[in-house]
Amino acid sequence: MKITFYGHASLGIEVGGKHIIVDPFITGNPQAAAIDINTLKADYILLTHAHGDHVLDVEAIAKRTNATIVSNAEIASYYAQREFKAHPMNHGGSWQFDFGKVKYVSAIHSSSFPDGSYGGNPGGFVIEGEHKNIYIAGDTALTMDMKLIPLRTKLDLAILPIGNNFTMDVEDAIIASDFVECDKILGYHFDTFGYIEIDHEESIRKFFDKGKDLMLLEIGESIEL
Fold first, then answer.
1. Which of 25, 11, 23, 22 lies closest to 56 in space, CA to CA?
2. 128: part of which helix (H) or strand (E)?
């Protein structure tokens, strides 16, 4: 399983011979100017919620690649009505895709499209594929529901927001990593704009002091599990 960071909360995942894009907000992010969305492969686009900084490039990528959009029922319906392929899910439900098993899990946030349309309730994803399991938290506060995840899935990586103001901060993300019983963390949703700028060295140190590994990738950088 290969995971690439495209800035903000945007990710590329290669697993089971398939390409997945998560929450594509690339062309609107000056920090990601080196990423050309027209070169990105996508069989699936996973969306945690409907905010513009998570869905900006969905239609451009889906139109070019014919990717299937996977999200909650309201977001899936929004895109299906625009004649995109979509797979609806809801909290607690899972589906066996051709790249692995996906479960849609709870997040505490808000969700509406830039045009004001209702975006359903926000969520995150647990992906089990190629004998590696990851949790993509989406935009969320710290929530006790995170404790449910390790009851079913032993994680190899937790991808957690750490930018504060709109989501968890570093301290809450450390607690979240305890809740999901995973000490290998990929931080995201930070530095894109002033409200969510962080001190990288201090953030890494705080995780290290708790015996945990926080990775902060450069935009375009990848890791393999």
1. 25
2. strand 123-129
